[in-house]
What we know:
192 residues; alpha/beta; Rossmann fold; four-stranded parallel β-sheet; three-stranded antiparallel β-sheet; 8 helices; 17% strand; globular; binds 2'-deoxycytidine-5'-monophosphate
Amino acid sequence: MVKPLIIAIDGYSACGKSTLAKQIAKKLGYVFIDSGAMYRAATLYFLEHQVNIKNDADVQNALHEINITFQNIDGLNTTFLNGKNVEEEIRSLIVSEFVSEVSSISAVRRKMVALQRDMVGKYGIVMDGRDIGTVVFPNADIKFFVNADPMVRAQRRYHEILSKNQKADLHEIISNLAHRDKIDSWFKNNRH
Ligand code: DC
């Protein structure tokens, strides 16, 4: 029997990592896991429950309450937070604005990385996200790093939001991406 592979796709946000990962997973019959969706779902929980991210105990308590799963609905990978379909809500601008801050909290990262490692079973998986090949699965069988022009990235996110019948402002998206790049790069360079 052929050993199922772990395929890691890293890169900045809105570069097409998920699109690439989904296509590879479909082609190989592998499970696709969108790790960014997991950080977004945690952020949605923090926003909905007004968790004070400066308070370690509040963050820990919130993390105990968070359960994130994925289901394939009509061929689409769909994110569930505590049993509720949150696929649309986690793509909203408000979540995008806070997700970098929430994902820079060490306790949040530890929980997400543990969940991600637990998702590896007997099936091959394709996981995308900025730390998958370096932190989550440093021994992944195949690793990609994806990048794209900032304007192309902003347009991708713009059309993604519009296609979900939500309001989108290209300038807001450009500044949101630049802001997140800054936080995400700082965090990448200072990760322990
Ligand atoms: O890929 P995305 O835009 O859906 O990711 C949302 C945020 O989640 C991104 O700004 C940083 C964070 N993230 C992370 O820190 N580590 C990952 N493996 C995936 C995403």
